[in-house]
Amino acid sequence: MQTDIYYRDITKTENLEAYLLEKVEGAIEDFFKYDSGAHLTVRVESDRHRTSTRKPSYICEVILKPSRMRTVIKVRKTDENFKACVAKTVSALKVILSKRSSKKAQHHRRDPMLNFEPLPETQEVA
Predict the structure, then answer these.
(1) Which residues, at least 6 apart from 25, have a Cβ–Cβ distance to it below 8 Å?
(2) At what angle do helices 14-28 and 82-106 cross, to 10 degrees?
């Protein structure tokens, strides 16, 4: 899987990059274990800077393009705490991916042969 991380108004460090990769790739590795052509884009930015009267605001956006599907999954969350912002984004991404995978798992539940019940045996009345 190809992963790109973009920073805007945030200083890029090795620890920050390792943290983002660990959180985001760790969340989707079960769903895209065999999809080597998937493209993951993570964008983190500071929406407003810290001043003496206000806290900073951060935006974390994850764009996931699976190679086998035409749909693009995009999640964008904001928060005043950077780690909480990343955690919100990752949890929302997990929810979306689990819903999509459960739909695939439930596809076979509608198979008429799985709901096959034998006919009740008739009893002869004497």
Answers:
(1) 1, 3, 40
(2) 20
Burial class for 21, CB neighbours closer than 10 Å (0-12, 13-18, 19+):
middle
Break the chain down into helix, strand, coil percent, rounded to 5: 35, 25, 40
Kindly report the backbone phi and psi dihedral angles of residue 40, in degrees, each rounded to the nearest multiple of 5, phi listed first.
-115, 125
Helix, strand, or coil (residue 14): helix
The 10s digit of each residue's pLDDT in 55-98 is 888 999 999 998 877 889 999 999 999 999 999 999 999 988 88
